[in-house]
Write a structure and sequence with these properties.
The protein is mainly α and 388 residues long. It has helices at residues 2-8, 21-36, 38-41, 64-76, 81-106, 110-121, 123-126, 134-155, 158-172, 181-194, 200-224, 229-239, 248-263, 265-285, 290-308, 310-315, 324-339, 344-371, 375-383, and strands spanning 45-48, 55-58. The chain has one domain. Strand 1 (45-48) and strand 2 (55-58) form a beta hairpin.
């Protein structure tokens, strides 16, 4: 309920907040589908110039978001900002349900409740969770894919592995970062096989990686059809390199600032402490417990898009959106690690300090985001004025 209420804040406002140009863009693509029909558009992303009917193609991402928005608009009979923002918000609420189920199973009690509250409140979730872009739609598939693999690896249940594969394909239809998930799963499979846990992990990891690569090539052919594969290749190349006189240490500083601001200081600190605890446990014990392995998988899956596409991560704070599962579980993991080291009174004090810190920091960031409309977004929206 807390997350739903925060997602509803300013949901009906015009496109004017940070990164709201994405909402105007993809709403326009959806209107093109509704005006011309999928037979005419081929399901591709096009601006339709209302002055002369000219179509302006876009082929940098899979066109699924525009198609889903078109169906959503048709279903609800409205194509305004509130309706558009409601679609990613619904997907994000699905992510919340999945994460809350994980917390209830692995971290029952106060630690899980504090972590769930953090997920609901931090701006990376409560602000970007309704952004009309790919990340909120992909995240539930990321969670399902990682948990499916983890459950199969821990229990041997084949249905969990099938669910993971289906989630990877579904998420890849929405955006490219989903195709990085099998890379992490393959690495985990190789690690498990090297530890003598069986060759099935390598076979499954390789099968997922190859299958996902083939799916990705098919999606790339579909997405790039209006503009050509060269244009799509240039877009990938641009995002995968750091450009100009921008040293890596400045990029790291920028990413840390994004994380601190949109995850809040307490969650940022918990993420760092959790990483240290995982490394220490692996070094000390030679292996991680099952729930620690899940936490490590979520950390790798969330970090890989940032490393693989540094230019995107430089300009877009929401490029760290896929770190939400890791950050959320880190809060519960670190709090549980403290339980045996402090008294019950001190424990309650720590819970209170974290909750207050998350609430205050989130409130400040949300107030800034909603109180300062973006000049860049205003210019982009004016440029899109002649399109549907």
């Amino acid at each position: 309920m807390v997350l739903a209420g925060l997602l509803a804040l300013h949901a009906g406002d015009p496109w004017r907040y940070l990164h709201d140009d994405n909402g105007r863009r993809y709403s326009s693509y959806a209107r093109t589908h509704l005006a011309l029909g999928l037979r005419a558009t081929g399901g591709h992303d096009f601006f339709l110039d209302r002055r002369d009917g000219h179509l302006v193609p876009y082929g940098h991402h899979p066109p699924t978001l525009g198609v889903l928005l078109a169906g959503w608009f048709r279903l609800l009979g409205d194509d305004g900002p509130r309706t558009a923002r409601a679609l990613p918000a619904c997907f994000h609420l699905a992510s919340a349900l999945l994460l809350f189920a994980i917390l209830r199973r692995l971290h029952p009690g106060p630690t899980g409740l504090v972590a769930a509250l953090a997920f609901a409140v931090v701006p990376m979730s409560s602000y970007f969770g309704k952004m009309v872009n790919f990340e909120p739609l992909v995240l539930p598939f990321v969670i399902a894919a990682v948990v499916g693999w983890w459950r199969w690896a821990e229990t041997g249940k084949g249905r969990a592995l099938v669910a993971s594969a289906v989630a990877i394909v579904a998420g890849a239809l929405v955006d490219w970062p989903m195709l990085l998930v099998p890379v992490v799963l393959l690495a985990d499979g190789l690690r498990r096989a090297r530890r003598g846990e069986g060759g099935r992990f390598v076979r499954a990891g390789v099968a997922l990686a190859i299958g996902s690569a083939l799916v990705g090539l098919a999606i790339a052919a579909w997405a790039s059809a209006p503009v050509g594969g060269t244009e799509l290749g240039r877009a990938f190349s641009f995002r995968a390199r750091i450009h100009g006189q921008y040293p890596w240490w400045r990029l790291v500083g920028n990413l840390v600032e994004y994380n601190r601001r949109y995850f809040t200081e307490p969650v940022f600190a918990a993420s760092l402490v959790a990483a240290w605890l995982l490394v220490r446990a692996a070094w000390r014990d030679g292996r991680l417990a099952p729930r620690e392995r899940l936490l490590a998988l979520f950390g790798a899956v969330g970090l890989l898009p940032v490393v693989a596409f540094p230019t995107s991560a430089r300009y877009h704070a929401y490029w760290q959106f896929y770190l939400l599962p890791y950050a959320t579980l880190s809060v519960a993991y670190v709090l549980e690690a403290l339980e045996s080291r402090v008294s019950p009174t001190a424990r309650r004090l720590v819970y209170g300090v974290i909750v207050i810190g998350v609430l205050v920091s989130s409130g400040v960031t949300l107030a800034v985001r909603y109180g300062r409309p973006s000049g860049y977004v205003a210019r982009q929206v004016r440029e899109f004025a002649n399109y549907l």
